[in-house]
Amino acid sequence: MRPLLLILSAAALLPAAEDVEFFEAKIRPVLAARCYGCHSAKLKQAEGGLYLDSREATRQGGRSGVPAVVPGKPQESLLIKVIQGTHKDLKMPPGNPLPKDQVANFVAWVEMGAPDPRTGGAIAAAKPAYDWEKEKKHWAYQPLRATAPPAIANPEWNQNPIDRFLKAKLDEKQIKPLPRASKLTLLRRATYDLTGLPPTPQETAAFLADNSPQAFSKLLDRLLASPAYGEHWGRRWLDVVRYADTAGDASDYPVPEMYRFRNYVIRSFQQDKPFDDFLREQIAGDILPHQNAEDRRDKIIATGYLANARRFGQTEGEFYLTIDDTIDNLGKVALGLTVGCARCHDHKFDPIPTADYYALAGIFKSSKYAWAGLEHHQYLDGFAALDPKDSERLRKQQERMVAAYRTVKKGEGKDPKSPAPQRLAFLEAQAELLQIRGSWPDLPMAYAVSEATPVNAKIMVKGDPATLGPEAPRGFLTILGGQRVPPAHPGSGRDLLANWITDPANPLTARVLANRVWTWHFGRGIVNTPNDFGARGEKPTHPELLDHLAADLLANGWSLKKLHKQILLSRAWQGASGHAEANAIKDPKNETYWRFDRRRLTAEEIRDSMLLASGNLDPVPGGPHPFAPRASYVQTQHRPFVADPAAFDHNKRSVYLFQQRFRPHAYLDLFDGADSNAATAVRAANNTATQALYLMNNEFVQKQADALAVRVGMAEPTTAGRIRLAHQLLFHRAPTPAEQQLAARFLAQTTGQLEARASWTSYMRVLLSSNEFFFVD
């Protein structure tokens, strides 16, 4: 039997019957209808860790540690503040606010002591979203480890640290690698790998005649110095930063200045610009110190990387999506993390809380992005004058445009019979806009990013811009240091972010870059998910090798050309392609690199090789695309920009082809070109029937086959000589006797049915469609 005192004490704690009736009638139904959707124990994780479906949890509060309800004190109760709309950051519930009478009921309920008959213990709501100590143990967040390459007895595999790491794994798995590839195979492989073009007959003859021990090293030096290197490897970077010449909004507005960023990338690769500088310039070039006018120009153009983020509309209301595209791409490209997954909720797999996402969002919200759409009143705002003396002119143009835009918007939709002064002001403002737009082709500008008023971003609850939570101080990812932009910092913080990303103490950036370069050389990565080093990505097959490459990259001043040479001089890269059944059983994915994986040429390599072989390749770097004058067009979602393929075609290298976001280039798309809406880490290499039909029927292929026929016909007087030259141009070798006989018979037979030129063109088309032309061993 319980003591009477305990029974009386418990009874004293129970709410009065009328108070319980008030709760059941006025409070519980509203909580159930408007709050439990986000704050119930039935959920895997409540928003902010706040649970409102039990008395103890409600009084305990959420992750912030602030009680949601303080009995008898509504002015101290977080719940009351957020439903009244008096909290400086939080407004609840999402969507429509509670009616005034319901808010008054909650205030009265708290004043009477917040009587609550609901049972259920307190929830551990203050528990952090992640166990940070556990998360830090993930391999990708560990500092770079310096591991000495293991000793290898085989002298062929003991010359290069890369080979020593790889051979140790091969030996461990008892896999015997294939022998070294032939000298001719290595010439073709290296030339395509570094320049995206085949070797010429003259280059082939010179290399095969060089029997010195340094012949291959000298070949690499020549290829790395070639302008074709910057064009080829610049295109690889454009793949991951989802380069396009249009904005990607519903109108898909042209961006005539975007070519400047493309050419900046190509120049940077060609000059072997230290990659940390290259990254910093793309994030914050406009606010970094510059040495001279040319350096200032390049750094402004570099921020075209940010400006190139996809647009989703012509109003500020959709701008958060452009910031999201920026964060998503930067996270994958530089850090190998899917940061964008934290916009609506804490990342489910990686230690990236929503607050970290909005810490980055604030940095980009504090920046002005250029706008492609002419009707946008901030059109000139993000643009930067490439000549400092034009800056003031650009600023005045922007002021005029804003004023005219506001007048136009004020007058739109008004009755044409409105008072003459109003109508006249409207018409004059329209004319003013046209005049300003018409004056831009003579003002050299960059599609860029500049500084805006610094501001922190508010967390969008569940990613909804209409439901804002607390501010997130601008800063970096917690797992990588969690640095914050100081309150007194004068700008957006992009300069600080650029330094945090490229800080050698950040273990991700160098690892991600070294892995990308390795992937582009071998066709598969040491981490075979180059955009995802997180928990859902694949683990490195050779972690010590990856850290060795990353550490070497840092030690060599972030030089890609030195990294290229180290990789291409390795025995592993120089291995033969082919098949070994025993190896394939043990390692079907070739994760140990027991062979070099044969690959199909990329779309750009196919087109460029055809142009080179036919003699039609224009080696002059590409410039701006032939867009119509700015004032001559206005696009809408019902009348989006559509490029005329013929108007934008040329015979320059394919990196200079026009890239539209909404309408992929038909040829590039057919041969698995990069997606200009996403970070393309690895190109697909599909072989399809439509590709074969293209080679059989397309006018471009026909023209190159015809030009190649004319070229060999003009260069050689005999059929045998012409067949031999065609093989040298396309396959870098002489034809076999069987190939000579087959070709001669084909030409003899078809010449009787076609004129001689058409017969030779048909034969060249056969050679251009062959596997030997399309694949690199």
Shape by Cα distribution:
globular
* Number of distinct beta strands: 8
Which strand order do you get reading across the main beta sheet?
1-4
The average pLDDT score comes to 89
Count of helical stretches: 33
Radius of gyration: 32 Å
| Quaternary organisation of the protein chains | single chain
- Percent of residues in helices comes to 40-55%
Poorly predicted runs: 1-13, 375-380
- What is the first-to-last residue Cα distance? 89 Å
* Proportion in β-strands: under 5%
Largest sheet: 2 strands, antiparallel
Strand-pairing-aware structural class: mainly alpha
Summarize the structure in words:
- The protein is mainly α and 777 residues long.
- 42% of the residues are buried.
- Strands 1-4 form a two-stranded antiparallel ribbon. Strands 2-3 form a two-stranded antiparallel sheet. It has a two-stranded antiparallel ribbon with strand order 5-6.
Kindly summarize this structure in a few lines.
This protein has 777 residues and is mainly alpha-helical. Helix content is 47%, strand content 3%. It has a two-stranded antiparallel sheet. It has a two-stranded antiparallel sheet with strand order 2-3. The chain has a two-stranded antiparallel ribbon with strand order 5-6.
